[in-house]
Design brief:
The chain is α/β, with parallel strands linked by helices. It is 56% helix and 9% strand. Helix 5 packs parallel to helix 6, helix 7 runs parallel beside helix 8 and helix 14 runs antiparallel to helix 17.
């Protein structure tokens, strides 16, 4: 996400850091470079101009600051103004005081609206809310089937009525069921079109009038840049959006939509889609996203991911066992599985401060690697896992054949394990094996 934009900005600021004290001319040159980078990233031209005017105004006098590196001070100003451009502060879903909260999901075809509705349902259910999905897309072939399949996967009920194409009647009937079942939140998946047209908007207006939604969320493809901004303006003008969900952000190297959509529409980005899996939906925090763009990391989101993914009881058991008896290969595999639950390794590393795409290329983040490690450990006997020192040449060859991997990978795993063992021994005097989310 944003790696192209992020790397170019980092390169621009690195040049300024290398100069030590900055003159006013240095700052103007640096900001001209930032302007070029933002325009290349497909950020709205008017917003870019306003952004740089604010930064330059605040940067006056930065060159005279002695206690803080002027370049670092300039980065801090850019961070603050990026946060403003992205929406200033997190805005979550507005929940009605009288349930159910009704959320109308709108957007064009291909934006990922149906899958995003399911992802949001899963997220809300995980927060302890009773959720229902209503299938109101009666035009796209198999749209209802898709939502029902997704509903089964996340164990959320889906209301559908194939006997009619009257979306207002479907939504009203679904809401009646929802009220009887005392649901907390109802998500209505509406039909999309290949482009905004009057028939589409008229149907959505009638739907809005009938169900009186608490939230109208536009699901927009983040990779379409300024097209996503124009689409948001069109939907907002017709319906009055309350927020935006940007999808496919894991594939967006530039970031034009995310950096423009709030500034143009003043509608907050509430969530971002960061993958295909049902849990790949994140709350949008403008300050944290600004930190990611400037390669300052996003440790808070990483910790929140860990708290939701890691089995605390298993982590405590492993901690106790390792401190008392030391780590064996079975424990190593268990720890790796805990980390794997956080998601792809590349995504985890990107949340650490200072990590850029150049560094990621030097690290093996192949998702298959964990499967290979698991196959190697499971090809060992229980005795071999507990006593890796007995793994001589012939045993290693047998394990490699059983795992379908080269002997060199078995050797490399054992080298890494020995390094981890040494680290654990140094910690056993009083330290703890800490997993995020443990207390």
């Amino acid at each position: 996400m944003f790696h192209e934009l992020s790397d170019k900005l980092e390169s621009a600021f690195a040049k300024l850091r290398g100069r030590g004290l900055l003159t006013e001319a240095d700052i103007k040159d640096g900001l001209r470079e930032v302007r070029r980078i933002l325009i290349e990233a497909d950020v709205n031209f008017a917003l870019t101009r306003e952004f740089l005017e604010r930064v330059e105004k605040r940067a006056v006098g930065v060159a005279q600051i002695k206690t803080v590196s002027p370049a670092q001070q300039l980065v801090k100003i850019v961070y603050d103004e990026l946060t403003v451009m992205l929406g200033e502060r997190k805005e979550g879903l507005k929940l009605s005081s009288v349930p159910p909260t009704v959320v109308l999901m709108v957007g064009l075809q291909g934006s990922g609206k149906t899958t995003t509705a399911a992802k949001l349902a899963r997220k809300l259910k995980g927060e302890g809310r009773q959720v229902r999905l209503i299938a109101a897309d009666v035009y796209r072939p198999a749209a209802i089937d898709q939502l029902e399949t997704l509903g089964k996967e996340i164990d959320v009920p889906v209301f559908a009525d194939r006997s009619t194409t009257d979306v207002v009647a479907i939504a009203r009937a679904g809401l009646d069921v929802s009220r009887r079942e005392r649901d907390r939140v109802v998500l209505i998946d509406t039909a999309g079109r290949l482009q905004i047209d009057e028939d589409m908007m008229d149907e959505l207006r009638r739907l809005k009038e009938a169900v009186r939604p608490d939230e109208i969320l536009l699901v927009a493809d983040g990779m379409t840049g300024q097209d996503a901004v124009k689409i948001a303006q069109g939907f907002d003008g017709a319906l009055g959006l309350t927020g935006v969900i940007l999808t496919k952000m894991d594939g967006d190297a530039r970031g034009g939509a995310a950096l423009s959509i709030y500034g143009v529409t003043k509608k907050p980005i509430k969530y971002i889609g960061v993958g295909e899996k049902s849990d790949a939906l994140e709350e949008f925090h403008p300050d944290r996203m600004a930190g990611r763009i400037l390669q300052q990391g996003d440790v808070l989101t990483l910790v929140e991911k860990a708290q939701g993914a890691i089995d605390a009881d298993e982590a405590k058991r492993l901690d106790k066992k390792v401190r008392k008896e030391g780590m064996d290969l079975g424990d190593f595999l268990s720890a790796m599985k805990q980390i794997q639950r956080l998601g792809p390794m590349e995504g985890i590393l990107k949340m650490l401060p200072g990590v850029n795409s150049k560094m990621l290329k030097q690290v093996n983040t192949d998702p298959k690697r964990m499967k290979h490690l698991e196959a190697i450990v499971l090809s060992m006997t229980l005795e071999e896992r507990k006593k890796p020192d007995i793994l001589n040449g012939s045993r290693r060859v047998r394990i490699a054949k059983g795992a379908g991997r080269p002997v060199s990978e078995v050797n490399k795993l054992l080298e890494q394990f020995k390094g981890m063992q040494k680290m654990m021994k140094s910690m056993r005097g009083g330290g703890r094996m800490q997993f995020p989310g443990m207390r």
